[in-house]
Amino acid sequence: MQQRSPVQIAQLYGSVASALVGGVVAAYAVAESRVDDFSFSDDGLTSVVITPQWAGATAAVVATVGVALLHRWGRGGLASVFAAVGALVIALPAFVPVSASISVTLNAMGAGTFLAAAAYPTKSHRAAQIALALGVTATTLYFGAADLWRDRVARWSLTLPGDTYPVPSTVPVWILLAATLLVAGVALVARSGQETDDVDTRLVTLGVVLPLAFTALYAWLGSTSTAPGSWVTAVVIAVAVTVALAWRLPQHDARFILAGLAIGAVSISSISFSSDWTWAVPAVGAALALGVAVGWKRPMPQLGLGLLAVTALSGLLDAALTTVAYVFVLPLALGLAVASCMPVAVGAVASGSLLPFTLTLFSVSATFLDPVSQEFGWSTAPLEEHGPAAVTTPIPLTVLAATATIVVAMPTIHLKRVRTAVVT
User: Fold this and answer.
1) Nearest to residue 110, comparing CAs of 129, 91, 136, 93?
2) Count of CB atoms within 10 A of residue 67's CB?
């Protein structure tokens, strides 16, 4: 048997490691940049550009444009430059004073650029695409686990006159350096195999329009001071726009976009871990790996989405059952749904994976819908503790809306497949 060269080894296995690390770093950077007092601001545009919604939308748009540029005109060298520039932008607060308000946008732009570089070598590489998607989505859904190894620094946008309150880098510089060397190195030796006319403008349109539409809906109907009726209207419009744009895509790309919508909906409840985490975190990892293994051998995206719906609906149950669902069922469903949808176009991987960040009606706005939250300006959603994990669940209306969103995505995937078969 002919021995593989170092370049071939990097192409085979490096893309998976690069995609996973790139997805985790980009998602962590966006999540960590959250401003603690964003819900208090009512200063016009400022009240939007410091929100998690703005951060997610900015990262998604930058990633979409970056992926399109790299696959239209780029080579491995340009992707390496993207990785270095993205990491430098994320790390900028470690070298110069940057306020919390400015860092939200700055950090999101860096994360989007870094993610585009990590996505570059994943074309037609199923394992690498799964790694990228899970790196982003798992980090998003289980970001609460970060409290186990770091004490988060408060980020305040409202400060005294003359006090900019500089914030640190969202990702430690040494981690960024190591991640950049990996992502840039793999991109440098990767073979894109993509022709100059191979960029799907429909994917670019979706990747830009959806985040902007979601941000407009957030500002108009779904902010932290909205009423439940307005929030439900925003969710209905967001789902309709997503389905309409996804319907125009090829079958496999549309399927993953709808899976991303479902993953975003399941973030309606959030999980965190206490210091007694002996079995919980390894259990999440094992369930995620099992889901990937099953989805790899026998793709079943609708079953994955069905388990996501069960997980979301568990928010109506008591603490023990909700915790079991988010520790065991959610990672299984996530791994199964993601692995079952791959491979897809690189642009679909980036846009679909970032949907939980770009559609914060579930993960952010829903937690402010109860009257007490709106009166005091911060979320008072109940923290239901059970063993080593705690699940934060908003009002029942939002749980039902999230479940309904996932249920809508399931038959849409089936109808899209049937329509494609008939046309073919």
Assistant:
1) 91
2) 32
Q: Beta strands of 165-293 (E only): which ranges? A: 270-273
Q: Which residues contact 358 (CB under 8 A, 6 or more apart)?
A: 53, 56, 57, 60, 210, 211, 214, 264
- DSSP structure class, residue 143: T
Give every CB contact of residue 1 below 8 A, 6+ residues apart in sequence: none
**Structure confidence by residue, pLDDT tens digits, 223-265:** 877 889 999 999 999 999 999 999 999 999 999 999 999 999 9
- Rounded Cα–Cα distance for residues 394 and 235 (Å): 15
Distance CA 176, CA 90 (A): 8
Cβ–Cβ under 8 Å, residues 380 and 211: no
Residue pLDDT, tens place only, 353-409 = 999 999 999 999 888 887 555 444 445 444 444 445 677 888 899 999 999 999 999
First-last CA distance in the chain:
41
Does the bond joining 343 to the residue before it have cis omega, within 30 degrees of 0?
A: yes
Closest listed residue to residue 106, CA positions, set 96, 93, 97: 93
Confidence of residue 422 (pLDDT cuts 50, 70, 90): very low
Those residues with Cβ within 8 angstroms of residue 67's Cβ, 6 or more apart along the chain or in another chain = 116, 119, 120, 207, 346, 347, 350
Q: Where are the alpha helices (DSSP H) in 159-200?
A: 173-189
Among 386, 259, 369, smallest CA distance to 320 is for: 386
Given a contact cutoff of 8 angstroms between Cβ atoms, the answer to whether 6 and 184 are in contact is: no
Interval 170-191 mean pLDDT: 91
By three-state DSSP, how is residue 75 classified? coil
The Cα 321–Cα 59 span in angstroms is: 34
Q: Give the C-alpha separation, 244 to 59, whole Å.
A: 22
Instruction: Calculate the CA dihedral of residues 140, 141, 147, 150 and round it to 10 degrees.
Output: -20
- The rounded distance, in Å, linking the Cα atoms of 49 and 368 is 18
